[in-house]
Predict the structure.
Amino acid sequence: MRSHSHFAPGHITGFFSPRIHETPEATGSVGAGVCIAHGVYTVVELLSDINTVTVYINGKKEDAPVSEEISKRFREKLKGVGVAVHHDLEIPVGAGFGASGAAALSLSLCFSEFLPLTRYQCAKIAHEVEVETKTGLGDVVSQLRGGIEIRVSEGLYGIVDNILLDKKLKVLSFSMGEIKTDNILKDDKKMEEIKKEGEKCLRDLLAQPTPENMITLSKRFSERIGIHDEDIKEVVKALDGVSLSSMVMLGKSVFSFIREDDMQEALSIIESFSGAIFISDIQEGGAW
Amino acid sequence: MRSHSHFAPGHITGFFSPRIHETPEATGSVGAGVCIAHGVYTVVELLSDINTVTVYINGKKEDAPVSEEISKRFREKLKGVGVAVHHDLEIPVGAGFGASGAAALSLSLCFSEFLPLTRYQCAKIAHEVEVETKTGLGDVVSQLRGGIEIRVSEGLYGIVDNILLDKKLKVLSFSMGEIKTDNILKDDKKMEEIKKEGEKCLRDLLAQPTPENMITLSKRFSERIGIHDEDIKEVVKALDGVSLSSMVMLGKSVFSFIREDDMQEALSIIESFSGAIFISDIQEGGAW
């Protein structure tokens, strides 16, 4: 038995503030980000002749602890079957595009075809495993919703609001590789600072919920918390005349909202740097 | 200044349980229903030379207290302008298709083009005015979400879950006119019964969240609370062999989920009754 393909969009975080609670369900983050039309497609195959979980990423067998754990939890209700998971990724891993959350959520949605499950019952497993394995706090709930999102409250059932768009904007993102953020996220004093800055940005965005203000506040956030990478700073500065941009949290990447008319100019600037360019529509509907 | 067109889907309620709280924001209902691709399109015009609100429904000037009140609340922030509201309705009024909620929500979304407002900030006014004028409890939040929805908790920020669909289902609905439900909704003992039955249906649907079970529980609900109209009973019975159906809460209408293959047979049965037939896709994305 094979599920239909399920999809979850990539998710870029502009700013965030972690909120940790006793349960993974309640734990999450507030903040703002955007879902892009590029993401992860997943198909699940149930196999009666084996009893293991195998994960293929873009056709290649890989170790994938999050996908394996998610499959294990659903398999407890599907006794006596093995699971083959096929992830097809359109977004890079480790660059801040929420690939882990997108894989987790699209995978969870696949199991609704074998078990009677609601959208939230599927998302619950994806969110909880992401939180437990420390691969994400706010990606899954954002990817479930779509659009330019404002996470007003945290956790699986948190309020995820949207900035309304009266014009067609594209997301231009630019990835220059990985950064090490482990030492920042393990530093308690730094985390306190991040929490405070994130909360401030949230308040300011809700008072003026526009795409422009979302980028402006994201930029302020990354500068103030000092995660602003030097290479990224240069790209952001170079783009300044054409379009406001900010660093992707957390990846050595830049993102910006751009109107079709300004795309050529922005691209001509970015092409002088070395990295991978992504032009995406905003995914307004969320995962399916 | 004229807004772009905004849309909210029609919404059919299968079963419900009112939950009244101190504020309109917190008040609402739990239950289940479905959003259909037919709904209400609205455009708002700001006029600097007058200072009143005028509402046009399908091109004709009409009294529309909900739309007038909503416009009034947004106008408080848009000083010195008049408002012309143009609603274009694809669904009948008073038949249980949530036309009032769809008009309220699509109208509220239009104001996001003149004021920086999020999706929830717009929906808040629509939901509150609906609750205050007693025209709806759960329509607006359902129409904001879309799909076959399960309202797990009530109010503007309530949890609205979705039944996941692995096949393309259409909604066949059939309207035989209006029913008087005022006396039922004003009867405290009856309302207690409705509340209890609705809560039971909610629990049973969450345990087996499928379209078939949603209809089965809706049917049980309408029979047990005794709102089951005699004419409607006949239509439901006649459809039984082809497709489960139930009475629309609250209207003299029937709804059913039908696969494309079964549509002709269902139509041949329904055509022997006298009423208006609607064939709609499920609106999975909600209002925009």
Residues 89 and 241 of chain A are 33 Å apart (CA to CA). Chain A touches chain B through 29 residues (CB under 8 Å). The domain at 6-160 of chain A is CATH 3.30.230.10 (Ribosomal Protein S5; domain 2).
